[in-house]
Amino acid sequence: DSGVTQTPKHLITATGQRVTLRCSPRSGDLSVYWYQQSLDQGLQFLIQYYNGEERAKGNILERFSAQQFPDLHSELNLSSLELGDSALYFCASSPVRVATGELFFGEGSRLTVL
Amino acid sequence: ILNVEQSPQSLHVQEGDSTNFTCSFPSSNFYALHWYRWETAKSPEALFVMTLNGDEKKKGRISATLNTKEGYSYLYIKGSQPEDSATYLCASISSNTGKLIFGQGTTLQVKP
Predict the structure, then answer these.
(1) Which residue in B100, B101, B102, B104 has the most chain A C-beta atoms within 10 A of its own C-beta, making it the best mutation to test that interface?
(2) Which of A61, A80, B17, B71 could anchor a disulfide with B13, C-beta 3.0 to 4.6 Å?
(3) Helix, strand, coil: what percent of chain A each, to 5?
């Protein structure tokens, strides 16, 4: 158990819908990372937050948004869903601003868009 | 090198064989290099994080080296066991982007 909690574990929805994925980092970790793993793809970096502020941004679609709240949990919002958004979404946390230490990964949220 | 690249993509070895994988990453503005082990139906777990050129790290039968000047890292597994079967990911962060970027991974299958 990494100490990172992601909910929901599985989600099935329809095209055009909106979903929210939630991540609770390890106690004391200030950084939260979001990654997307689509079929036959590696982990694609979406976004990183540190202590409530956006720190680094990857190729995150405009239909996607994220935020980190004062209690340090983070949410990834996916809207106007398309079939291609079906993927495993991982959240990871670390105690520091820059990844000079290991990331701790949650178990992922598997999104299926029908 | 603009992205993080790993080779080979997959590897099948016999139990007891030693093996190694390569991770290539942008050498300019290098900040840190991570190795993770990812077993099927689980989440990635860290093996090593290396920051200094010439770093060598070891955990049991697994070790890694780092060359930041030429932008590569090797992961070695000595005497592979079936439980070593997993996908091994490397990730690099550079100081100018601040993004931790993963390679596609090397999938290792160890046959008993």
Answers:
(1) B100
(2) B17
(3) 5, 50, 45
Stretches where chain B sits below pLDDT 70 are: 1-2
CA dihedral A86, A43, B22, B66 (to 10 degrees): 180
What is the 8-class DSSP label of residue A26?
A: P
Q: Which of A35, A100, A104, A109 has the most B C-beta neighbours within 10 Å, making it the best mutation to test the interface with B? A: A100
Contact predicate A51/A39, CB 8 Å: no
Q: Which residue of chain A comes nearest to B40, CA vs CA?
A: A107
Residues of B in contact with A45 (CB under 8 A): 99-102
Tens digits of pLDDT across chain A (114 residues):
889 999 999 999 999 999 999 999 999 999 999 999 998 788 999 999 999 999 999 989 999 999 999 999 999 999 999 999 999 999 999 998 888 889 999 999 999 999
Among positive and negative, which fits the CA dihedral A39, B85, B108, A44?
Answer: positive
pLDDT in tens, B33-54: 999 999 988 999 999 999 999 9
Task: Determine, for residues B49 and A33 on separate chains, whether the beta-carbon distance falls below 8 Å.
Answer: no
CA of A56, closest CA in chain B: separation in Å?
Answer: 6
